[in-house]
Amino acid sequence: MKPTSYVALAVFSVALAGNAQAYTVFTDRAAFESALLSYTIEDFESYGTVGTPDPFLMIPDGRDTLTLNHFTLSATPDAIKIWDADHSGSHNTTTGGTQFLYLDTDNLGYASGTPVGSTTTFSLNNAVDAFGFDYTGVFEPGTAFTVSIGSFSDNLALNNPEATPLFWGVIGLGSFTDVTLATSLDSGYGVDQVTFGLAVPLPPALWLFGSGLLALVGGAARRGQPEHG
Question: In principle, which of 14, 55, 93, 98 could form an S-S bond with 134, CB 3.0–4.6 Å?
Fold first, then answer.
């Protein structure tokens, strides 16, 4: 094989390695789900409620951890609640359902007089390469709402008006188990229909790119072979 062949193979390897932790972000649930090979949706309907239904009570009754069927939640401060009633724009998004995950730090915020955000991590039982969710009620002026997976981080749009459900999802070329949601100021918001699973292994464009390089390798190799009479 000629040196040009080695170069082509190296380029293909770098392309795959360079995209191993690349992420594609979705803001449309239908498009996200259509890109998945298999997935599970956690709608929080099969659990009892967690936490007081009145966020204005100065009772720090949110959980700092909660283990559910497919993942464990951990939050700072103690923000984890499961509710079955709407509040300040946060609500269920499951058709026919009532319950949703409410990440609530109002008790701390009202006690201090300053809005307090929260950081919540979803630790999945099994590695996935796709994760998404509906969210409502993120509308505190000046807040930042981010999702982080390893070194990857994305800023999410705020709900405007706050009761309008929005969707955020991501597909990566590498698998992961931990996803972290954080607000800098917003003291409570709803999350529902958490969707996670496996996507098609590689995007078609990358397969075409790889196929083209492999064809280049083959052509270079053939051109470099000695002719036999």
Answer: 93
